[in-house]
Fold each of these.
Amino acid sequence: MYSEKVMDHFSNPRNVGEIDAPSGVGEVGNPVCGDIMKIFLKIEDNRIVDAKFKTFGCGAAIASSSMATELIRGKTLEEAWEVSNKAVAEALEGLPPVKMHCSVLAEEAIHKAINDYRVQQGLEPWEEKNHHTHGHEEESCGV
Ligand code: FES
């Protein structure tokens, strides 16, 4: 039921770990399944020069965080902000419908980490435009 890409990023996740003195950290959890994802960013000149993650969660959440950190590395903050959970799922060659919400955690964690950085810089946090991030708490986790 999982694509080869998902299996690959699940069994051999990229960018696992923490960053010392990160520029921004985003932690999100899904209260339904209890899974937690934490993303660390190192930002230089408005660009993400390093991204790492720690995820205590299902295989789809681990594969999503691995792929998400790969996608945002080297991007500007504006570009990284636009990386949606759909983009993460597409890069993974698809997730089963009951597992799409796991990729939402990655998008939310990236947004939180970027805003953590912005607030530390004395900047206004950016606003979420996507409404799917609100209310996914009520979705079943499919576990
Ligand atoms: Fe909870 Fe995937 S994130 S089941």
Amino acid sequence: MRNFPVAKSRRLRSTPYTDRIEAHGVSSYTVYNHMLLPASFKSLESDYHHLKKFVQVWDVAAERQVQISGKDSAKLVQLMTCRDLSMSKVGKCYYAPIIDDDGLLVNDPIINKLAEDKWWLSIADSDVIFFAKGLAAGNKFDVQISEPNVNILAVQGPLADDLMSKLFGDEIRQLKFFNFNYYEFKGHKYFIARSGWSKQGGFEVYVDDDLAGQNLYDSLFEAGKEFDVKPGCPNLIERIEGALLSYGNDFDNRDNPFEANFNKYISLDTDVNYLGKAKLKIINEEGISRKLRGVKIDHNKIDMYCEKTLFDDNKNIVGYVRSAAYSPTFKKVVGIAMINKPYWNMKDQFRIEIDEKIHLGTVCDLPFV
Ligand code: THG
């Protein structure tokens, strides 16, 4: 497959940082929530090594916020997720699958609780706002639902604390994983969470003012020189190794949360009310016939623009690879695959066709590291 440039338009939204990342040498984009999301800078592998050693600044504005506020906001947010939020606290972030009435996945946002009656759903790539508005209208909930002008800058990598404390002070080092607080820099208060779509640690700054965000972007690069700061983005290799799942790639609206290994976020035994709960109880009793597992393939490249089928020696289908990339750490292709139950603990090798040649691989646990 050849690569073609993507024509920009109002429909394919830019971010307040697009000019800056283009000046910084973004080399490919993907589209996420109808918005540009950088996919690589120097190269996937070079970005990967840098992310694991230093610190990067990411334009992840495409992680859009669905703001739900008002008297019935807690009721609506709980109706949308199978995670029990009854004990949730202001200042905390909750990774929470969104489920439809069929018990199928709609999205896997981080839900930020800003106040008892104000929530931000920091969404993956599907149109959650219409789902929320439909539920609110159908249930006659007293809520306001909008997409605020919030554009996240993520600071990721082992030196993220060192860089962020230079701008925001040492107190930011005390911020706990999946908590957020407000920190000031040059007269603007920023909502900052310790989170991010890498396993290397770091922060996400939810910027509510374009000029302040652009100023912050420039200041991070100025202050980051001593830490070899570079522009970056969610890295395909690193996120597969860490098993950070991607809606639309690893799972979608044809999969249920058990198949996506979301068991620890599914509440069946409490009395919280959410869509699809009856369906999830049935699925839980019947058991699932496939789930996401890791795969390692003895090869040095793979292009993933569609699912790739895995076969056993007798040409039975083992499963389907949904995301994959060559890992310089494992010196193999690593991937996330929907594997049929008989093969969950497969000891033998499977077969996969890549570029018209057959290669061998094995099923393994997630995460890889
Ligand atoms: N940050 C923010 N918004 C987002 C993402 C993000 N929206 C889209 C997408 N990413 C949502 N998906 C995920 C998937 C995994 C995680 C976060 C968002 C994640 N998981 C941790 C893990 O698996 O180790 C921790 C989960 C937990 O503690 O419950 O961080 O990245 N703002």
